[in-house]
Design brief:
The protein is elongated and about 95 Å long. It folds into 3 domains: 3-87, Elongation Factor Tu (Ef-tu), domain 3, CATH 2.40.30.130; 93-242, Threonyl-tRNA Synthetase, Chain A, domain 2; 283-403, Roll (Diaminopimelate Epimerase, Chain A, domain 1). It starts with a strand and ends with a helix. Helix 1 (89-113) packs across helix 2 and helix 5 packs parallel to helix 6. The protein is of the alpha+beta class. It is built from 8 helices and 21 strands.
Length: 404
Amino acid sequence: MTKRLYYEDSYVRTFEAEVIECTEKADGVFLIRLDESAFYPTSGGQPYDTGTLGGGQILNVYADEAGEVWHEADKKLTAGDRVKCEIDWARRFDHMQQHAGEHMLAGAVHRLLKGVTIGLHLGKDDSSIDVSLPGGRTNITEAEIRMLEDDVNRHIQADVPIKCYFPDEETLLRLPLRKPPTVTENVRIVQIGDDEYCACGGTHPSSAGQVGLVKIIDARPSRGKMRLTFLCGMRAFRDYRNRFDELERAAQSLSTGWENLHASVEALNARMKDAEYHLRQEKKAAALKTLSSVYENAARLGSVRAGQHVFDGLGMEGLREAASEFIKENGRIALFADRTDSGVLLLFARSADVDIHIGKVLTDAAKAFGGKGGGKSDFAQGAAQSADALAFALTQIQTVFDKI
């Protein structure tokens, strides 16, 4: 079984090892086993380490069921040779920060909310844990989020020690473990301060202060559980810096300080909504003024007139008002559209005395031009990719009236 050097010291960055086996897995990719290794294999939600092995680049690291650690690399090595290995320390230390922060956060969830962590994911940009809460809760409050953050960051500020060790069976039985181990032999314990004890084979810093900071950035339901997404260490710092820069730029653009930004944005939104309302009212008024010309240019279908018009920026509410006004008189059909970024909105309507199912007409016209929609026999709405749907609809209506 491969001796895992990180069990004894997570800070090993370079080491030498003997090549036990090297086989070609695929074109240019070699599977290598060493007598000992400090490269962490993907396990327990923590990704594998990268770096160099005998001058080649590490592509993947994993452990088989027998406990042998296998390294995928892009360089062929010779069994029996001793090779120099170097870990990508920036990646390793980032994973150490995230994993230790996860332990403290999971411990706080357990102590303060009685929640049980059932899954960990250390991602490239953020990390997350899935938690089972009492009563099947899948959400927590803002106050509870702050409580968890305060607890974890107090431990970080106190720089409580982080110890990783293999206790004997008698000692293991006395430890106040947060949850039972998933293995029965060679159980490795991570202890953080005096209130976090958990079986774990991952890599961690030697003290909580090196985690730097833990910030929860999201809490939401996920597959019947509650998922907490968080950032630790340099990830949290970079996130703070990016948010700070964006906050400052936004405040400057509104000629205010960051502390007044929310009020300034609320005032701006209110002014914008007011302006949009008045603009819509003006567009509706203009649309209603065009209805007389729409009627004059309407297609004649016996005693019925079918008016077509494409508006610009009226919106569905405005289309409904225009169509309702148009069909107040008997013998009218409204085939109205409004331009959008992706095509047109459609609103078809008919007067009460016109015998045609306008919903079916709209459905067919919308579908013919890459859209969808429908409605009742007298009123229908939808969308299409082209205003040509109006001419298509008129042709359909003419066919119906020709048969009467």
